[in-house]
Amino acid sequence: MKVPLLDLTLQYEQLKDEIMPKIIEICETQQFIMGPNVEKMEKDLAQFIKADYAVACSSGTTALHLAGFAVPHPEEPKILTTPYSFFATGGAMWHISKKIYFVDIEPDTYNMDVSKMAELVDKHDIDIIVPVHLFGQCADMDPIMDIAKNNKRGKNIQVIEDAAQAIGSLYKGRPAGSLGDVACFSFFPSKNLGAFGDGGLVSTSNTEIYEKTRKLRVHGTSKDRYLHEVTGFNARLDAIQAAVISAKLPHLPKWTEQRRKNAALYDELFDGNPNVVTPVIRDYNYSIYNQYVIRVGEKRDELQKYLQEKDIGTAVYYPIPIHLQPAFEYLGLKEGSFPVAEKAAKETLALPIFPDLTEEQIRYVAKAVNEFTAKK
Ligand SMILES: *Cc1c(COP(=O)(O)O)cnc(C)c1O
Fold first, then answer.
1. pTM to 2 decimals?
2. Ligand 1: residues whose CB is within 6 Å?
3. Closest to 159 measured CA to CA, from 238, 73, 218, 285
């Protein structure tokens, strides 16, 4: 049996008749950039996220750029983030400031370890915190916001949620993207809500951040097209991507439920196997399982090879923590700086979790994992 890590062709088949006429319509109007489709998509998404405003942009990485420049901060702000995320989290922030700091992660959820945060925020005089809702589960946002707004130095630290993997995820009943000062989403095709190409979004309920983000998206202009109030970017979204995202959004809750059902079945099938640690979801969190990541110890690479031989697709998210990437060598952070993240990078493996998996496929994957890990 073949089980790919992700297969979107089934989803495309189901939605083809709904989406293709919208794309043809856009081609017929030749209105490709921004316009009514983008405005509609922004409205739909703001409502879904329960944020006052949403600004569509060209990718999740771009959303991080825009949010980073839009939040109020001093020159060369000191930015605190997680070392265990997709590179874009740290990479995008580097364009805002070279002063990047990290806080280690929790060993079970892989999200930022809030218990270590207050001390670091004070020590490094942090201006911006960028939590990531990794694999679809929100970081512990209440204490993060508390540290950001009630800290020893009396600073209004800005919190940028990297919610690229968390659309529809809930924290204590509140949606990802409505929890920080501003949030960033990605519509890269492999995300739970994927476009037919690149796309991203910034959400906020802060009017100033919203207006600044909108300006930055189009070369620093707002009303008068040729008047540039600040310098900015070309970070616009295509109308076709916006139409695809709007068309897919109503299906998202159903897809999320299917992912959660798949996760529950894996959990059950791995229950009683002491060599497989299944995802730990806090009881106040509703995870959208952008990934289903197990921890299997040092034999992770061997397991991946074994599964490959059985036609099972898996992935390592992420093999090299951000602080050990050559691009961040200038920070001087050696192996051992963030041991929890470094250990997770060696021991975790993402299994197929996409909505259209069949029960038979999930049982096949779990059986193979259980067979291999039993040998340890
Ligand atoms: C995907 C992702 C991004 C970047 O989004 P793109 O749309 O690929 O630019 C940023 N952060 C995290 C955590 C992501 O998973």
1. 0.97
2. 59-61, 85-86, 88-89, 132, 162, 164-165, 186, 188, 198, 200
3. 73
